[in-house]
């Protein structure tokens, strides 16, 4: 009874928040608007990688750890705090992990917790039209709309509600902390593993199709439209960007032509470092994943 009451109160708050922004019509308008207020801080959508994909050599999965380690341990990143976790869904196999339980500032990767939790709390039998929440999730993740994310976060009941909703899916409450729904606060923290686990459970949890479709597509849409163009990752990666000064993040899914679906989270915190250098390094990691090729393997079985 108590849980039902809390759910009803949270749903009522979400209804008010939805109506206060004009419902679906207002959201549809926001989706088509190129206004930078809908993007990560510091105009993340305008960012693009400056690396040559031809310089990323094909490799076996067994060589991926060494390849990524060379990227993140370059002298220019001596003061950086990296966290990386990559898994193969089909094989239930960890391909690479580094500082996977290190709490880091996730920037707008924080929106993954907000939207995943909101989808679990939504009641399809409620008077609120089912299209409303789906539209909100789409704008929040595709466009990285900070205001909508914060309003949704407050509407569903804040951090306690998010924590409870995700813990029921198996996400450890101690693996992330939310101060807001957008990720603008530097007091938000998350581990790479918590983001990967959230992405994994959202493959099967309520609202999975909405959640997956809301993520930007590499080289084609949202905050990833200018990254990975004309590379093996274009069209094969759906991921949430994260951008604050000295912080870059990318967490999502890769549909690999040989190795099936990969789930990954890459977080880096390095105050004073060029955002472009951080993006380039993250994109090198993603392209190294995309370039895994069985033809380069001798006796390895994936």
Mean pLDDT across every amino acid position: 84
**Helix- and strand-based class?**
alpha+beta
Ends apart, CA distance between termini = 48 Å
How much of the residues is beta strand, in percent? 15-25%
Radius of gyration: 19 Å
Side by side, the strands of the main sheet go 2-1-7-6-5
Helix content: 25-40%
| Biggest pleated sheet | 5 strands, antiparallel
Q: Figure out the total of helices.
A: 10
pLDDT < 50 runs, ≥5 residues: 1-45
Number of strands: 7
Shape, principal axes of CA atoms: globular
Oligomer: single chain
Topology as H/E string?
A: HHHEEHHHHEEHHEEEH
Can you put this structure into words, describing what you see?
The longest helix has 19 residues, at about 1-20. The chain has helices at about 1-20, 25-30, 65-70, 110-120, 130-140, 145-155, 160-165, 190-200, 210-215, 275-290; strands spanning about 80-90, 95-100, 175, 190, 235-245, 245-255, 260-270. The model is unreliable at about 1-45 (pLDDT under 50). About 40% of the residues lie in helices and about 15% in strands. The N and C termini lie far apart (about 50 Å). It contains 10 helices and 7 strands. The protein has about 300 residues and is α+β, with helices and mostly antiparallel strands. The protein is globular.
What's this, in brief?
The chain has helices spanning 2-20, 23-32, 64-72, 110-121, 130-142, 146-155, 158-167, 192-201, 208-214, 275-290, and strands at residues 81-88, 93-98, 176-177, 189-190, 237-244, 247-256, 260-269. The protein is α+β, with helices and mostly antiparallel strands.
